[in-house]
Specification:
It comes from Paenibacillus hodogayensis. With about 325 residues, the chain is α/β, with parallel strands linked by helices. It contains 9 helices and 15 strands. It folds into 2 domains: about 5-125, NAD(P)-binding Rossmann-like Domain (Rossmann fold, 3-Layer(aba) Sandwich); about 130-290 and about 315-330, Dihydrodipicolinate Reductase, domain 2. The chain is globular.
């Protein structure tokens, strides 16, 4: 029996769409890319021809009017996520929105409400959460093998400092390292601990050469039970992509915590009193798993792996981190 497929439209020709998400949808079990849009018709046509996408549109509005599109992926600059998520919801399209979900938690709440009002599915593009290794890590933590969790440390850094014209270097467009990659260790700690942080303290380097955005940030999030996430993120440092979970009796280390190639076997290590062992999972495309999760929800009525309101909770933490960095103070996070 042939399963129905979710028909995708891509709003924008961003690198993440072309290099990762579109290939991921194509390799998914239940997705197909049928259209792509850009602000200029020529760019859309060139991209569609290069990638073998059947339809190209010279405006974002046009792709929302196509009745043959079930869902859209939004990889636009961060300040445009709210507008186009709400417009897509009003057009009856299901939505995968790139992270960070919005500029702040208030925007996120509006986006979630609009999707609920119009009866469309909504997901944030944290692709790493769909990889089965995270479910396996949660099982190890729950088993008590590494004891009581004392802390988590995450690091996600790279060096894009030479590219000063990128939207990530524009404060008005939601630029900066916390928005761009700090959201990964923040979301990972929330995922693994199953709770929300109570306060944030962050120090950042704001660079005049890069539009005044935070090019490097180091933070502390206080979770219930005296557990903390320490993290650093940067767009002006050597590349790292790691996560460590520290327990009273052992630790878990992920050398490629958030980004891993579809053709590699992601490895993580578990160290206990009995020694250090290597855990492997089969090669999988995280972007494909992400696309299939939305497809299963739209086509089969299955629950999404992550409730849309999770976007609001994550943005509340991001809001606190940015406020802390700007004011150089500890910020209590309202989770009610």
């Amino acid at each position: 029996m042939v399963q129905a497929k979710l028909r995708w439209g891509i709003i924008g020709c961003a690198n993440i769409a072309i290099g990762s998400v579109i290939p991921g949808i194509r390799q998914s079990k239940r997705g197909e890319v049928v259209a792509i849009a850009s602000r200029g018709e020529e760019k859309a046509k060139q991209t569609a021809e290069k990638l073998g996408i059947p339809k190209a549109y010279g405006s974002y509005e046009a792709i929302l009017e196509d009745p043959d599109i079930d869902a859209v992926y939004i990889p636009l600059p961060n300040n445009l996520h709210k507008e186009w998520t709400i417009r897509a919801a009003q057009a009856g399209k299901h939505i995968l929105c790139e992270k960070p979900f919005s500029i702040d938690a208030a925007e996120a709440e509006e986006m979630v409400a609009a999707c609920a009002e119009h009866g469309v599915k909504l997901a944030e593009a944290f692709m790493y959460r769909h990889h089965p290794r995270y479910a396996k890590i949660k099982e190890i933590i729950a088993s008590g093998e590494i004891g009581t969790i004392r802390g988590i440390h995450g690091a996600f850094t790279f060096n894009s400092s030479r590219n000063t014209t990128n939207f990530r270097n524009d404060v008005s467009m939601g630029g900066g390292s916390i928005y761009d990659i700090g959201v990964y260790p923040i979301s990972a700690a929330r995922l693994l601990l199953g709770s929300e942080p109570e306060a944030a303290t962050v120090h950042a380097m704001f660079s005049p050469e890069h539009g005044g955005v935070d090019m490097m940030a180091s933070g502390l999030l206080e979770f219930p039970g005296s557990v903390a996430l320490t993290f650093d993120c940067a767009m002006w440092a050597a590349s790292r992509n790691t996560l460590e979970v520290l327990g009273t009796d052992g630790r878990i280390e992920l050398p490629s915590a958030f980004v891993c190639r579809p053709d590699e076997e992601p490895v993580f290590y578990v160290t206990t009193k009995d020694g250090r062992r290597e855990e492997r999972t089969e090669p999988m495309n995280q972007y494909s798993l992400q696309a299939d999760d939305l497809a299963a929800s739209v086509l089969d009525g299955a629950p999404l792996a992550f409730d849309p309101f999770d976007t609001v909770l994550n943005m509340r933490v991001v809001d606190a981190c940015l406020e802390s960095a700007r004011t150089r103070s500890r910020i209590v996070i309202a989770n009610q």
